Amino acid sequence: MARQTSAETPIPVGEVSRLIGGWIDRLGAVWVEGQITQLSRRPGAGVVFLTLRDPSYDISLTVTCFRSVFEQVADSVSEGARVVVHAKPEWYAPRGQLSLRAAEIRPVGVGELLARLERLKKSLAAEGLFAADRKRPVPFLPQLVGLVCGRASAAERDVLENARLRWPAVRFEVRTVPVQGVHAVPRVVEAVKELDAHAEVDVIVVARGGGSVEDLLPFSDEQLIRAVAACRTPVVSAIGHEPDSPLLDLVADLRASTPTDAAKKVVPDVGEELTRVRHLRERALRAVGGQLDREERGLAAALARPCLRQPERMVDDREEQVAALLHRSRGTLRHLLDRADSELAHTRARVVALSPAATLRRGYAVLQHEDGAVVRDAAEVADGERLRARVADGAFTVTAERPAEES
């Protein structure tokens, strides 16, 4: 039950410590996993003191156990080892200190570590953190390379020296951190986030030399994996040697088998690039030269054609053809006109010959009644009737008179 307190009715420090101890005493024994960071085995002492640390969350607890408990695992447990402890929380009231009283200590074997890594790998893969479509391409020529490595380590030397041999102008932003032990994970995560926030860093290389499974465990830590997955900057994993495969290799945008291989993959080789440029220039010159040769041959072939060698010849040939066509057209037109004139003359002669005027000029006359009707029959004319006689050169009036025998 919570105690009712106020500024006027406080409780002493000893009472607070006693209450905390009472609450902790009600806790049962628990199994705890961690990494041993400090180990104190004083000669003649019946108690062994350990510091158990959670490398992912940077939290430590003091563990005490009887020497007889520790002697059972003394040959297989040392500083840096991962262990599972069955212990009961204890509160030391005079100092206000929490610790664990261990009744059993079990070292975590390599097989168990690998099994846990496999389970973590499947869990993270199910979330899609290792998917290929998440991976970003590494820039061809980064202006600034971020490097996370151990202080004065062979990995740092391999990356820097090989990268500068390949491209002397490359620049590095180096963050040296612990690469094994209890402080490795938080420091590596911090360095990666810091470089990812750097505006000029184009790619981040996380490098470490080879080691045992236990040594490389920080690079399979879930906290580090998620931090790398959240990076905006491409990350290259260069952990250990070729057979080593921490989970960082799977989430990184590019895996390098060694730190030296990372240097080769991050920056191009200036000699190779100069050779490639020279080859490309030679190919370009050959291509342009070949194109010019083809065009020159085509131009020479075109100029060799008669129409371009003697362009006036075409005009002369066409002039002769035009003159011949003109002569033919004139002859044809003249022939047509002559034939039409002849036909017109014959038609005119026939018309003139058949016209009434021609008949009148031969001595014939046309007789008409006073009303203009033409006399076609003698029976139509009365004796003494005045008729109009029309001849070729004019007309005159006549009086009809029948012969005596008709009267």
Report on this model:
The protein is α/β, with parallel strands linked by helices and 407 residues long. The protein contains 12 helices and 13 strands. A 5-stranded mixed beta barrel has the order 1-2-3-5-4. Strand 6, helix 4 and strand 7 form a beta-alpha-beta unit. Helix 4 runs parallel beside helix 8 and helix 5 runs parallel beside helix 6. The longest helix is centred in the C-terminal third of the chain and has 44 residues. The protein is elongated, with a radius of gyration of 62 Å.
Which runs of at least 5 residues are low in confidence (pLDDT < 50)? none
- Topology as a string of helices (H) and strands (E): HEEEHEEHEHEHEHEHEHHHHHEEE
Average pLDDT metric? 86
Indicate the proportion of strand residues.
15-25%
Radius of gyration: 62 Å
How far apart are the first and last residues' alpha carbons, in Å? 182 Å
User: Helical amount among residues, as a percent range?
Assistant: 40-55%
Outline: elongated
**What characterizes the major β-sheet?**
5 strands, mixed, barrel
Query: How are the strands of the largest sheet arranged?
Result: 1-2-3-5-4
- Work out the helix count: 12
